[in-house]
Amino acid sequence: MASSGKTLADIKWNTRQRLQYIELMAYYTGIVTRSDIARAFGISDAAATKDLKLYGDLAPDNLVYKHNVFGFIPGISFKELFNELSAEKVLKIIAENTPVTGSPIEKNLIFGVSVEALPLPLRLPSKPILAQIIRALKNHKKLEIVYRSLSERESDERRIIEPHSLANTGLRWHARAYSVDTFDFRDFVLSRITEARVSDEQAESSSMYDDDWVEIVTIHLAPHPGLSGKQRLGLLTDYKASDDLIQIEVKRSLVGYLLQRLSVDTTADHSLNPGAYQLVVANRDEIEPFAGWAFL
Description:
A 5-stranded antiparallel beta sheet has the order 6-5-4-3-7, covered by helices on one side. It has a 4-stranded mixed beta sheet with strand order 9-8-11-10. Strands 1-2 form a two-stranded antiparallel ribbon. Helix 1 (13-29) packs across helix 3 and helix 2 crosses helix 3 (45-58). The model has no long low-confidence stretch (mean pLDDT 90). It starts with 12 loop residues before the first helix and ends in a 9-residue tail after the last helix. The protein folds into 3 domains: 8-107, Winged helix-like DNA-binding domain superfamily/Winged helix DNA-binding domain (Arc Repressor Mutant, subunit A, Orthogonal Bundle), CATH 1.10.10; 127-211, Roll (SH3 type barrels), CATH 2.30.30; 215-294, no CATH class. 29% of the residues lie in helices and 23% in strands. The chain is of the alpha+beta class.
């Protein structure tokens, strides 16, 4: 790709960050404006315009200016130059609400502390599908999908949904959306969406109509009765509990996922192995209506 006197090696890291942001915004949301860049990095509109010009010089075929939206959209031959635009990388950036990731210092232990995470299987959609989902979210559009449900419903049936948010359960990502077919809000696991296309139609719903997303409940967790007194005390200390209860506020729609993530024994008689399921729900009657599928 052509450049005006500058090569990729000449670009300083702070400028490269802004070019990465331009690339990510254009591809995943479908549009990037100078106001987006100025707001994300706290720079002037003039400086943001300069960054857009530099990006255009380095990747002349990637962006196309659209007068009706006062911004740039991805070109037909768009090809990432500054970013690895994989779902794994981009969802991390979105979750952390940071403009970019991948700083050179990430390769070095700047605090001298090594940290490892569990090598959990990635359950993510393809890059083009994620881009369609995010564009629908950002622009409040209907989204046509093919969804591989685990229910008895026909797997390859096309559905129309109106996504309003993304959620990360720690094991998988899903879109919280209104289902036009079933007339309710539900969760759609991103990795089970095999096709996605943003519609020209504006979404008619929003998160404010999704009661289970808006309303917060408090889960009261207690040590499993099968644990010894010493074990119970250690667990309460671990969670910094007060009054012998661990209290967690969570959206009603996320209750079941939280119970799963914390390996809570949700049987009525607390019959699961306390060595593997160390917690039980103390306010079951209050919580179960919001996550009946998670209770045994």
